[in-house]
Design goal:
The chain is mainly beta and 105 residues long. 0% of the residues lie in helices and 28% in strands. The chain has a domain of 66 residues. The chain has a four-stranded antiparallel β-sheet with strand order 3-6-4-5, with no helix packed on it. A two-stranded antiparallel sheet has the order 1-2. A hairpin with a 6-residue loop joins strand 4 and strand 5. The protein starts with 33 loop residues before the first strand and ends in a 10-residue tail after the last strand.
């Protein structure tokens, strides 16, 4: 309360119910995307499937990580750019949707 953390908790998603979220679509190309928060207050559209790191150019490599919410037992998923370290060629990464839907598409 002193930190201003007064927002109501999010409802617990039902893991057996896969229909509770309609996958968002890209306004440009209509493809299904996944939209995740990042660690710096921005949101990013990611492809719905992972691919080996060797098939995704470095600027488009993302990884999904669980961010422990210390105030609750739930965890949040955040998108983190894969940078600094080179992943193994076969290591799965989540490509940014922009890779398929960039200005030159
Ligand atoms: Zn698109």
């Amino acid at each position: 309360m002193a930190d201003g953390a007064t927002a109501p908790p999010r409802p617990e998603p039902d893991p057996d119910d896969v229909s509770w979220i309609e996958p968002p679509t890209c306004p440009r190309c209509g493809a299904f995307v996944r939209i995740y928060p990042t660690t710096y207050d921005r949101w990013v559209s990611l492809a719905t499937v992972e691919m080996p790191a060797k098939d995704a150019p470095e600027p488009f490599r993302w990884r999904l990580m669980r961010l422990p919410d210390l105030s609750r037992v739930t965890t949040d998923i955040v998108a983190v750019r894969v940078r600094g370290i080179d992943p193994l060629p076969g290591e799965p990464v989540v490509p940014a949707h922009r890779m398929r839907c960039g200005p030159d598409w």
